[in-house]
Amino acid sequence: MNRIKALIMKDFFTARNSVKSLLISYTIFLFVLFMMKNYFQRLNDLPDNILIIIAIILFVSMGLLFITTGFMRYIFQESAIGKEEIYFAYGYGVGELCFGKALFFTVLSLVIPYILVLLFFSGLLKTPFFLFNILLILPILFLLISYLVIFLTWFTKLGTAVYFVMFFGVFFLISKVVKKIIKMKLKMNLTTIISIELGIILILFIISYLITKLIKKENLIEKLS
Amino acid sequence: MLVVKNLKKNFGSKKVLKGVDFKAEKGKITVLCGPNGAGKTTLIRIILKLMKYDEGEVSLSTDFNKIGFIFHKDILFSDITLKENLLFFTKVKRKNINKEIFDKYLNLFNLKNDLNTKLSKYSSGMKRKAELLRVILEEPEFMILDEPTANLDPLVKIEIRELLKKLNSEKNITIFMTSHNLDEVEKIGDKILILNNGKIAWTGDKKILEEEKLELEEKFLEIVRGGKNE
Ligand SMILES: Nc1ncnc2c1ncn2[C@@H]1O[C@H](COP(=O)(O)OP(=O)(O)OP(=O)(O)O)[C@@H](O)[C@H]1O
Ligand SMILES: [Mg+2]
Predict the structure, then answer these.
(1) Containing domain of residue A94, as a range?
(2) Closest CA to A222 of A74, A77, A82, A80
(3) Which is it for strands B29-33 and B2-11: parallel, antiparallel or unpaired?
């Protein structure tokens, strides 16, 4: 716990020192919201407002991931220089390291965008399901995805290209599926949707857990050095 | 105390350590020297559990949290300032920065004006001093230092040498270090080890050298050149 706190503090310093690129990311996100506002007004005509909410969540997470992309560059830098050795020397485990980084990214990427989103779509505040999603499901999902991406980019040296393919590929697929759902006006009740969401989270969690368990620190160092 | 017994390490078919044996006793300064590529850094990484080894034994009786180390390469983060770096590294070790020690060494290393400068803007000598400052603030009982005086100018080299001696005698900090500066090795080492051809080829100290009427440099050349001819 102490190590994770220290890690978050260190990453906070880094973020503070690169406040310019942070501001650029947030500005672009704001821009995306502007453009989306129109689109959502059209969606409002749809009967099933749950679908709208799903769509919003997806778009918001897309924006968030976009912001995180900027921070992933920083992970690349650290992994390229081989900074994991420092963390290992100071007692960090692989899981701890990825989790600490993911946690920081999640906080940094979510808090300000949340405020912006709620400013733009304040009506959503009245929808408990939306709040449940954006305050609970989305952060957890985001944390797990960040964890996986950090792990893969850092410790398997998959490289930039794969990272982009993975991120944008996943979101391309999801947006396709959502479009289909909206078209089909598929009727789904809240329980089903929440179960699906929790199912996805569980699967991601199991994957994260397994790959972290499977890969040993010593082997990693040998391979990376 | 650090005890290494019959330590072997290969990188593929390349045999780097072929049975290294030595002890670094508590309260003493043990210095390891040897030609480039002898395996000094490899040995230190193994001791710090950053690398696996093939055979042998490594036992370190000091609690891991009480070990301070300097790596062959600098480890402070270059995208944050010295102060931020020190806050991070002391926090990981569950320490608060000791104000007195901090001020004292900040002045000694002449880093006061650069405390809020990103490390990427430091010269390599400044970075080395910053690394030392990090280790000192962690207040370790055992220091494992891989070329702590690399990249430093002669004056600072002497200052650091004296500083390490003082830390050893006043605070009873055990030191195991490597160095390419034989003059320094001779002056600082309670015990001197020469690593060559994957083994400790010579163990000695100032006294032995005096008895043999040899400079460390001569001894070093004798061993390394001799080893090459093997
Ligand atoms: N991860 C690695 N993979 C393969 N070979 C390695 C690895 N690390 C070190 N070596 C090899 O092991 C040998 C010893 O390297 P090491 O860095 O330990 O030497 P050193 O004594 O510290 O040298 P120097 O005085 O230059 O610092 C070298 O031949 C090096 O090429
Ligand atoms: Mg070395």
Answers:
(1) 2-224
(2) A82
(3) unpaired
ipTM over 0.90: no
Alpha-carbon distance B61 to B63, whole Å? 7
Distance separating alpha carbons of residues B182 and B33, to the nearest angstrom:
8
The strands making up B67-70's β-sheet, listed across from edge to edge, are: B67-70, B142-146, B174-178, B29-33, B191-196, B199-204
CATH number of the domain at B43, please. Answer: 3.40.50.300
Collect all residues of chain B within an 8 Å Cβ-Cβ radius of residue A3.
92
Phi, psi of B78 (to 5 degrees): -85, -15
Q: Give Cα B178 distance to the centre of its chain.
A: 5
Q: At what angle do helices B124-137 and B99-108 cross, to 10 degrees?
A: 160
Predicted local distance difference test score (pLDDT) of residue B113: 94
- Residue B203, helix vs strand vs coil: strand
State the closest ligand 1 atom to the C-alpha of B147, by its place in the atom list counted from 1. 27
B11 Cβ below 6 A of ligand 1: yes
């220091």: which residue's tokens? B143
B191-217 CB burial, b ≥16 within 10 A, e <16: bbbbbbbbbbbbebbeeebeeeeeebe
Does the C-beta of B16 come closer than 6 Å to ligand 1? yes
Domain that holds residue B23: 1-62+161-230
B156-184 tens-digit pLDDT:
889 889 999 999 999 999 999 999 988 88
Using the Cβ of B84 and the Cβ atoms of chain A, whether some distance falls under 8 Å is answered with: yes
SS3 of B204, please?
Answer: strand
Q: Provide the domain count of chain B.
A: 1
What is the Cα–Cα distance from A38 to A188, expressed in whole angstroms? 25
In which element (H, E) is residue B8 found? strand B2-11
Q: Is residue B128 part of a domain?
A: no
Predicted confidence (pLDDT) per residue in B40-65, tens digit:
999 999 999 888 899 999 999 888 88
Q: How many domains does chain A have?
A: 1
Whether B174 is in a domain gets the answer yes
Q: Which of residues 3-42 of B touch A (CB under 8 A)?
A: none
- Residue B160 is encoded by which pair of tokens? 């650091």
Give, rounded to a whole angstrom, the gap between the first and last alpha carbons of chain A: 27
| Ligand 2 center–CA B36 separation, angstroms | 7
Two structure tokens written together for B122: 């430091």
C-alpha span between A13 and B67 (Å, rounded)? 26
Alpha-carbon dihedral A87, A90, A96, A102, rounded to 10 degrees: -40
